[in-house]
Specification:
Length: about 625
């Protein structure tokens, strides 16, 4: 458990753990924009730009946002909604499909799928913003010493991003082990810096009284509309924390939060509140770096520690993105991509090259366009707050439909949490045109991809089911014609009952059949993993050397068909694993007016189909034993 807690520090808490770098500074900036119209960074002084009521109000808002949203909502409640240890939007979706799908009408289930897809798209959008924003904010500490560094900050950030994404192929467990010591140093630095500042103005501890937050809201109602969106920056790592839960287990994540992360964050935010009560000016409004003297011997080491910590912050979202895409693919919501398992002991630790390099390109683009964290910050919170609301809704459905909790009791709690989520969302929506549109566009793009792929595969499945020859007719034909039988086993991959079109086409042209033929169907169950004992779900003997078999995998697993074929003998299917040929259908899509899909969606679906990872590679079929049979399909 200690090892998992250690690793969790190196991956899971990077995002929320680095929020002190920019959250309080952006909150003050939002207040000054609303009350004084100041949009640029300014060197702030207590009494000139803000007073005690503002400082106590901001600090109180931070304390209670972390306490309610993270410690109560996510750590205590949301993390209960795991699917055999796995967290995230698609884990909740799979849990509902497995345990409670019969309780929803088709339209209701579709709405649930859309919520999960939209929420996951927003998390993926957040994953693009996090590396760009957090890494730039760390390098901007150099500006506290001298502004000569300013032109180089975007390029230092780009170099960091390239290095970060280049090491992803080594795996989450290795990255976490490398970064964990740095993260321990980071949280220790947060606590020490906060405690030292707190000793100068210990009266800021009184900000834990929620009355100060209420007083600020009543005194500055217009500013609150903008400030709440910046306060949201201190909790933006929640969804990544939940999505990454399966990498290290729920107990490890909880212990790391309660023992290390939460105390360090609270101390640092109280320390930042204390620093703002001090009459000394805060250079460029950077409250975090104002916790140390503005001299190179203090700032440069802090920049290096912050830089390492922001790399870890990015890691939490990157590894979470890999998990989400892998789950979406297994649930039929995303085209096949290359999934590399990087840890034999932990199934959930994977690497997806395509996602990795697309993320890198998007992150570099954001850095070069926005050039500083202050300009990019408005883009950060909008998607996350929307995801939080969706998560609360799905959690309520799990609690009432799967666990059968009292609907009134949990409903009151979830209603209160959704009100908080909506408050954060409305505040962030005020910054939609200042950058918030970025994550929304990414989320909508991901949603379009997933729903189009889901619809296209459903249409294609209906067509293939209609084209499948009934087993009885095919067996009758074999008995009548008595075709020549060649040695070996032919495995036809199919997802529908009956004889797949690929076999009928093959038989029509070759006039021969293998001695043994297996119709193999791969099913994805709504659980993370399936035990080896349950892997071969069904085996059917049709006679004439024909067998049907269904194998099951969890949505966090990647099928390995040759390994399963070797175990078929124990199920009564005579197979020599060394003499097996695999037959796959290769569909050539032709557009017609037969299906209800629009032409643009058909074009996009065809493009995704053509660029998806080949089924032979996805199912780990030996290259020299694969035969692809082309078929023209009208959609």
């Amino acid at each position: 458990m200690r090892v998992l807690v250690w690793g969790a520090l190196g991956v899971v808490f990077g995002d929320i753990g680095t929020s002190p770098l920019y959250a309080m500074s952006e909150t003050v900036s939002s207040h000054l924009m609303a009350t004084r119209g100041l949009k640029e960074k300014v060197t702030m002084t207590f009494g000139q730009y803000y007073g005690q009521d503002e400082v106590f109000g901001w600090t109180s808002l931070f304390f209670w946002a972390i306490g309610i949203v993270v410690s109560l909502k996510y750590i205590v409640l949301i993390m209960r909604a795991d699917n055999q240890g796995e967290g995230g939007m698609f884990s909740i979706l799979a849990l509902l499909k497995e345990k409670a799908a019969r309780l929803f009408k088709a339209r209701g289930m579709f709405v649930i799928v859309v919520l999960a897809v939209l929420g996951s798209g927003m998390i993926l959008g957040d994953g693009v913003i996090t590396p760009s924003l957090s890494i730039m904010s760390a390098w901007e500490g150099l500006e506290v010493v001298t502004h000569r560094w300013s032109p180089y900050i975007p390029w230092l950030s780009v170099a960091t991003l390239v290095a970060l994404f280049a090491i992803q192929r080594f795996g989450t467990h290795r990255v976490g082990a490398i970064f964990a010591p740095a993260m321990v140093v980071w949280f220790a630095a947060l606590a020490v810096m906060g405690a030292h500042s707190l000793s100068k103005h210990p009266e800021i501890i009184g900000a834990v009284n929620p009355a100060y937050a209420a007083r600020y809201i009543l005194k500055f109602p217009r500013a609150t509309l903008y400030v709440i969106g910046s306060v949201d920056l201190c909790i933006t790592g929640c969804e990544a924390l939940y999505a990454d839960m399966g990498h290290f287990s729920r107990p490890a994540v909880r212990r790391a939060w309660y023992w290390i992360v939460w105390p360090a964050l609270v101390l640092n935010y109280l320390g930042q509140g204390s620093r703002m009560l001090d009459p000394a000016p805060i250079v460029d409004g950077n409250v975090f770096f104002a916790l140390v003297p503005s001299t190179p011997q203090f700032v440069y080491p802090l920049v290096i520690i912050s830089w390492l910590a922001t790399i870890i912050a990015s890691q939490a979202l990157i590894s979470g993105a890999f998990s989400l895409i892998s789950q979406a693919m297994q649930l039929g919501l995303f085209p096949r991509v290359s999934v590399v398992h990087t840890n034999k002991q932990m199934e959930g630790q994977i690497y997806i090259p395509e996602v990795n390099w697309i993320y890198l390109a998007l992150c570099i683009g954001l850095v070069l366009v926005f050039k500083n964290s202050h300009s990019l910050a408005p883009a950060y919170g909008l998607a996350v707050t929307g995801t939080m609301a969706f998560t609360t809704i799905l959690f309520f459905l799990v609690a009432t439909r799967v666990w059968m909790w009292n609907a009134l009791a949990i409903g009151v709690a979830c209603f209160g949490l959704i009100l908080i989520d909506i408050t954060f969302f409305v505040s962030n929506a005020t910054q939609f045109f200042e950058g918030g549109y970025i994550t929304i566009l990414i989320a909508l793009a991901v949603t379009f991809v997933m729903l189009t792929w889901r619809k296209g595969r459903a249409v294609l499945g209906d067509i293939l089911r209609g084209a499948a020859l009934p087993m009885e007719l095919f067996l009758a034909s074999v008995k009548e014609e008595k075709p020549h039988r060649v040695k070996g086993t032919a495995v036809f991959m199919t997802s529908n009952p009956g004889v797949p079109p690929s076999l009928t086409h093959y038989f029509m042209h070759s006039k021969t059949l293998h001695e043994s033929i297996v119709f193999l169907t791969v099913q994805t169950r709504h659980v993370p993993e399936v035990t080896d004992a349950e892997r071969i779900a069904t085996v059917t003997d049709y006679g004439e050397g024909l067998h049907g078999a269904t194998v099951a995998y969890g949505f966090m697993e990647t099928p390995d068909i040759p390994r399963i074929i070797g175990a078929m003998n124990a199920k009564g299917v005579p197979i020599d694993p060394k003499d097996v040929s695999y037959f796959l259908g290769r569909e050539a899509l032709v557009f017609t007016g037969k299906s209800k899909m629009s032409l643009p969606r058909k074009v996009f679906f065809k493009m995704m189909s053509q660029n998806a990872v080949a089924a032979s590679a996805f199912f780990k079929l030996p290259p020299g034993r694969v035969v692809e049979l082309g078929m023209q399909i009208e959609i």
